[in-house]
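Researcher: If only I could read backbone structure tokens as easily as an amino acid sequence. Walk me, if you will, through where the backbone shape changes along the chain. I have put the entry right below:
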Amino acid sequence: TSVHGRLSVTDAALVHQRLAIMIANPCPDDPRTMDQRRADAVGAALGAGSFFLACRCADAGCPAKVDDGRASSFVIHVIAEHDSLDAEPDPDLHGDSRNSEPSPEPEPTQQAEPRPKAALIPAFNAAIVPAPLLAELIIAGARIRLVDALDLNTE
């Protein structure tokens, strides 16, 4: 989603200063580019009222890996296959793409693993959440509550 707007010179300087502080918070192993950090910082500051940006590195003990409010500030109801909860995050979601050229399609194996199905957010214009993004939200602190599909009210 793109956001455009006009700020006064003084407000723009304050925003620039705050974003510079926020994007410096994650450790050097954070996989995001500076532009991706800046976009995430805007979301964390405006959307969650945060003054810092959580690190996305693989180190579970990283001191910069804190709750910046983006995953824990609200509840999203997602309808997903159970296999989607165990999906791996997309390694290209943050940082520069590893391959600039598409790799050739691998030969199918006899019993190829099915890809996890995307999830559905019914209250948000029936938005689709790809399984790797769902995995990213879970890692960032989204809470999971399993519900039996038979218990859902279908009107």
The CA atoms of residues 48 and 69 lie 5 Å apart. Residues 9-48 form one domain.
